[in-house]
């Protein structure tokens, strides 16, 4: 059902549609956000969709709703909290001859904390299951942090490439696994085309668990710590650091970790009267021991930076400490993991291969890029892909987006005309405000109906 | 000269080096920021470089300074306000067998408002002129806004591809022309390799001027307005909007533009009691006339969104208004330009080609993507590429980064050993704090020297 009556009546009309078992394209704006949330919770419980309120655009099963463009059919599925964002992508992808499977609008507030991204999650789940969709694109203004975390977890588990474009947010890196971050709609278009050609990142990640909960990062390189903090801050909570990106990430006492903690041990508070931690491993070894003794710690991250100026044998300094930490944890009946980001070149004086081998012999996992380290961390302590049954999410039947030939239109009549012109069977409902728009009278009538 | 003496003495040592006509690699930290700024201004006036203070890493002419990696020679030039950021890139690019020409560290505060990115600008200019460098990479934490604007202008005019990675900042789009925005060091690496292969974006943009100063954007699509605001906000000033991204962008009176103004005419304050501006062009036509009458306006931006639900002939509605605006401006002896972002598909009911032709006949420039619109805008009202002579910038001779075999080392002795191991001729200066570290005595001595 397409609903475009004035905002103060729209939620009631939409709710009636849900009660009749209909999916709703809710164009109207000025619907209170708590009504939006309750409508969407009701829809979710019944396996129905509410696109909107304030949803400008959708293309479902080849039929365009609201403001939409007639786009060639293809294998890219779009999810958008913005109308013209979706329309720009339709326009771009039609020009590329790539085409789209579906474009699902969610309404601009869907990804707020109050609504919690209910429709976006349903849309991700639909396009994940939809056989006509090979690549997903999610475009929105920056969501609430907790919604970002959940959506990125769901995207990571989608089993298909997902291009994420949160316009105006600092992206948590270039991407990882099947999730790529685009900075603009055009970049999202480009990544989607690339993913379509390459069919990359199609398998969901395997996860592992050490039993602990927290990751602790002990870095000598400030920029490495920052990059990892930017990435992990988007998908884990709570995250603390001595180089916080957001105010709530500030670690109260740099000497004591809490929750997930990422430390730059080269920062002033750690280096006063000491050599840089690339040269002197004393501080890192003591902190490594401290973190390893915490039974809630699952994973410890370290960096080793080789090259001129650095210690002559960093792996030799760290390996005994890593080995002891792992042995002591095992002796205490705990699993603990250590991962090391190794930065250096084959020509560096320390012998890259030998350094790597020494670290691996100590029991550490050795990776060569920040992206690999983040991926490893997420697989250990990130959100697990959720079983729909477990989360009590009633899956929306795929017919909701595939079978869109029969539409009821309540409100703006040109929408009915557009739908009919596209070949849909449209029933235009002759809607009038209850009691002719007289609210006192309408309230009386509503009470009498009970 | 490599300077790594304690911070409170380091600036004096560096200044002596400048007075002797030497370039300075200043490893020391804890140098006051005003001393950093005055040192760098002095260096700039003399065509010398000060890398640092708090500069961890540089590779100049194959010689590594401070903490650095022995990286194969190649054609990618790096500029970094961070040490381990540069080292990670060295490590990545060596593994890719791409290699680097030079890696120029600037120190972490170089891109602050207080220092103004003096060293980064010098480095951009050096690598622009350096025949061994085909692609530039600039990595930093987010610079001060005014420094971002200047550096992006210089990058745009570099005549070579420039990959920009401001870690933790919301990037102003995917890139434009020869400037690409990376979200992580790995993405910067990937873009640099791609640019190296494709040799793209090598020619500096041609600019044009209408004589006016300001751009005014009148958009019906909120996300289109937002994307353009994100892009232009990074390179133009002052920018105002009714959908501000930063607090200082808020337009006091939505009915009156000032400076550069980007409006979302679909926002609530414009649509109460009106149809959406995709359906009703009355408001846009009146505002177009208002902006065109402002003699300080150089360029007016519009969007036209075709498709179902939209007006049956948007170009027919807008074209007469555009034509009149251009004619009246010309009659008043002014140049004015209008550019239209046209969103739609070939199958849309309005006839894409015909809409485009109608708009072009009215005198507007028609573009199909946000990126093209931003590029067009920048060419009209953006910062002009600056002639070094005009800005009184003494170019640093290329020998500063090419000819690095003779080094004076003042401070940490292992740096001298590393340099010697790389085959440099090193003179180790036996430095002691003035008056044995007694500051009162040192001040007396300094006064006696005058």
Describe the structure in your own words.
- The structure is a homodimer.
- In chain A, helix 1 (about 5-20) packs parallel to helix 2 and helix 3 (about 85-95) crosses helix 6.
- With about 450 residues, chain A is an alpha/beta fold.
- In chain A, a hairpin with a 2-residue loop joins strand 10 (about 175) and strand 11 (about 180).
- Chain A has a six-stranded mixed sheet, with helices on both faces. In chain A, strands 13-14-12-15-16-17 form a six-stranded parallel sheet, sandwiched between helices. A five-stranded parallel sheet of chain A has the order 3-2-1-18-19, with helices on both faces.
- Chain A has two domains: about 1-205 and about 390-430, Succinyl-CoA synthetase domains (Rossmann fold), CATH 3.40.50; about 215-380, Rossmann fold (3-Layer(aba) Sandwich), CATH 3.40.50.261.
- Chain A contains 15 helices and 19 strands.
- The model of chain A has no long low-confidence stretch (mean pLDDT about 90).
- Chain A is elongated.
- The two termini of chain A are about 25 Å apart.
- At the A-B interface, helix 3, helix 6, helix 7 and helix 14 of A face helix 3, helix 6, helix 7 and helix 14 of B.
